[in-house]
Design a protein that fits this description.
The protein has strands spanning 2-7, 10-12, 18-26, 33-39, 46-51, 57-59, 67-71, 77-82, 91-98, 107-108, 112-116. By secondary structure, it is mostly beta strands. The radius of gyration is 14 Å and the shape is globular.
């Protein structure tokens, strides 16, 4: 299993940037696939970016070209660099980890609030 601790959320103006961090610990952390989800009040939680244990990445169309997901060399910290932020990016952002297809369980961080407003 893995434990996830997030940081980096806050208030930013439209067009600004933030970098979210997710520190992972536990057994065989480097083998986990990881990703960032977000959820705004009254809306469904959605996947915004993912990175697998081999370093492959994918992005939601709404953030493609603006957000970049990455992991450090030890794969114990995941980042989401968010540029050109828009008000519609406002949401609680959650770190996710899993070991699919080998294990089905999802692990989640506590969530961090990102607010994009003038």
């Amino acid at each position: 299993q893995v434990q996830l601790v997030e940081s980096g959320g806050g208030l930013v103006q439209p067009g600004g940037s933030l970098r979210l961090s997710c520190a992972a610990s536990g057994s065989i952390v480097s083998r986990y696939n990881m990703g960032w989800y977000r959820q705004a009040p009254g809306k469904q939680r959605e996947l915004v970016a993912a990175i697998n244990s081999g370093g492959g990445t994918s992005y939601a169309d709404s953030v493609k070209g603006r957000f970049t997901i990455s992991r450090d060399n030890a794969k114990t910290t995941m980042y989401l660099q968010m540029n050109s932020l828009k008000p519609e990016d406002t949401a609680v952002y959650y770190c996710n980890a899993n070991m699919r297809p080998f294990q089905s369980r999802d692990f989640w961080g506590q969530g961090t609030q990102v607010t994009v407003s003038s």
